[in-house]
Amino acid sequence: MNHWIVAPIVLPAILAPFIIMVLRYHLDLQRIFSVAGVVGLLGIALTVTAQAMGGDIQVYELGNWPAPFGIVLVLDRLSAMMVLLTALLALPIVLYAIASGWDDRGKHFHALFHFQLMGVCGAFLTGDAFNLFVFFEVLLIASYGLMTHGGGAVRLKAGVQYVTYNLLGSTLFLFALGTIYSVTGTLNMADLAVRVADIPPEDTALLRVGAVLLLLVFCIKAAVLPLHFWLPASYANAPLPVAALFAIMTKVGAYSILRVYTLAFGPDVAVTEGLIGDWLQPAALLTLAIGAIGILGTQHIARMVAFCAIASMGTLLIAISLFTPGATAAALYYIYHSTLATALLFLVADLVMQRQSGAIAPKPPMPQSGLISALFFVGAIALAGMPPLSGFIGKLLVLDAARDAPDANAIWAVILIGSFVTIVGLARAGTMIFWKSHDAQVPPPEDEAEPAPAPAPEPQPGLAFTSIFGAVLGLVLLTIFAGPALGYARKTAEQLFSPDAYITAVLGRDE
Amino acid sequence: MEALVASAVGVLTAAGIFLILRRRTFPVILGLSLLTYAVNVFLFATGRLALDAPAVLNKYKDVPYTDPLPQALVLTAIVISFGMTAVIVMIALSAYLSSKDDHIDMTAQDSVDAPGEDA
Question: What is the ipTM, given to two decimal places?
């Protein structure tokens, strides 16, 4: 067996307890080990991606129990590229968290960070539905700690809401898995695909209930309307570097939809034929619309970026809900783009909020305003989908893939108008925060008013900017190498839409 | 037997959903606990209900057995929900102690000023 497959889970799983137990009083050592761990994860992710590039699907049987009796990890092109994305995202965020001093404002930031990475990587690699639930819980329980990192009354209140909502989601997940198990008698995804195809059509009512419940769970994670309520309050009140990391968590929901509904309840399976796409597509269109309106309407920069995350999930799920190989390839390219762009904007929002309040209103100028506004500009261009950055290519691909869809008119209208509203909203925010501050009508800060608490000085502003430029570099590379990236995405989509290879690899026989 | 288990799951779920729609954190956490009990009983039943049967196969003679997998699933689910309940109790307590208010909803003022506070 190829032990590299389990390495993305094992490395953070060992590192996080090590940080808690051995390094808990040594912040400097924590930082060194944490960055080294993320770099190591990136190396592992590159290795497994190189291995998956050939197109072989590799299986890792935990405890050497053969599938479907034991839990398997499966490395195919999709899981490899998602693990790589996780590592690529984690590196600038951990550097930024160190540079901005966020990891010093509470305890155990680095340990929780690595537990979160472990859960995310595990969710991407597992080939078992119940194990997917377990890894969801791992990443959620770490995210509860990260979300309330640094404390404060409002953040804790938002944390209570976030935990409550996700506990409900977990309960629903268990109901869905129980329903599916009671019909099929298995929770291994490949075995599930075989069994679901064999069930006679008149016995499928319960299975359809299970499939829709599972979709609901993934939609909660992916913040699809009308299940998106948790996202703005949670992300805006979380420490913003953590919110940047959470950009990958919504993608875990999108990944799960893609995995389960191409493999087990695929588009060719009679049980769920049309069921998923028909529901998902209008919801995704509404998600994009609400996200765009939210960007335009909100009064706070962190909430605005949270709505950007919702809008980009809308675009992504429109592409996924088409369930064609071309649209899925577009979605995979867009996943990379939207994760990096959302994280970039969250980090820029944190730069703003380190210096002044986050309200979108004319305010006195802040230090390094020029550099920050340039970064905001880059992030806004990327997220709104304007040329020359990768957002433009991503949206173009989605539009192109939707051309032959039955609802092409609606999709084109919503994406184009949504992008326009997003541009207006981001331009308004940028103008208010960065330009109006130089307006003569804004009163200078009054000295006689009670002195505002001095903004926490950044220990290493250079590193903070460097890490953000790293995220920008990622977007630029994604634009320049759009051809190879898209080629990889196309082959991944082909692999996803011929699930027989996956089933054969996992179960080791042709059925 | 089936009716009894089904109605137990139904009543627990209904009570749980009623409670999580309350406005204060304590009933909401109680409701979440009831929901996790409901889902645990439900998971037990997914392997079909079998009375007085061991959870092991007997290779020498054909005796009734109960499906062991749901029991393993329930065990995992119980541990996770137990831990999660402990976490939410702690977060809710610290939210209550720091804001002197145990309402679960956030006021408009909270959500606008929120992230700026610790800038």
Answer: 0.90
